[in-house]
Write the structure tokens for this entry.
Amino acid sequence: MSDAGTGAVSSFRVGAVISRSFSVFFANIVGFIPLAVVASLPIVIVGVALPLDEAVLTSGNEEELLAAMGPMMWGLLAVTIVSVATYLWLSAGVTYGVVSYLRGRQAGSVEILCQSVKSVPSLLLLTLMAIAVFLVLAVLNFVPIFGTIAFVAIGTWLYAIFWVVVPSIVVEGAGPIAGLGRSAQLTQGHRWSVLGIIILWIAISMMIGITAGAVVGAVGFAAGQGGLGSIVSVIINAIVQAVMMGLGASVAAVGYHDLRVAKEGVGADQIARAFD
């Protein structure tokens, strides 16, 4: 088996983490996609169930606009919470599958699903903590110009520090607080590299998103306006979102593995013993 399968790494490198994440994800795509599809549903629902009526937007009636915006904002908040929770749950399943694969065995979708469920209580608490931190940081956006810059900078740096919190919870059985501490410990000394991985992944995601958007538009146009075109667009969007979310979770899982190898000198077999 190749390095992607054995988990052999010599150091923590940006390009290596990204490339190995793609190879590991697509080698296990059959096991990952069912979870990824479920996790992508809240995002699809936003596009289908919560669009703001174009007539209201263009009417110029402030009362109608405010009346329409209220329920939509509450709906978006609810969907955001569910989206974060389902993405963390997906990340838990992908982490199990990635670590198992790097150990030399391929887990099936049922096994991945069962393992992901074990971390749900900790992941739900982590979701609430993440939403709370986001809302606190969002206050910075009210500060003109520099507030938004500070919001993005602080948020991105915190993400780099706590990038491998979910793998820490899944593999080491840590609670949300201990998982955050473990992630901070593992990323220490490698945070600029982690930041590089995050930025590179965002760039890749944007390119894939633009390409997928063009494909969705073309297919929707070919299928015609209305029912069929909308259904086809939703299906394609769901598939793209599922793959993108699964890949993002795979990047963090491979990053966790490589950080432990680089910092602690352990191998994939030692890391995966927690699942035995």
Notes: The radius of gyration is 20 Å. Residues 62-103 form the longest helix (42 residues). Confidence is low (pLDDT under 50) at residues 1-8, 52-57. The chain has 13 helices and no strands.
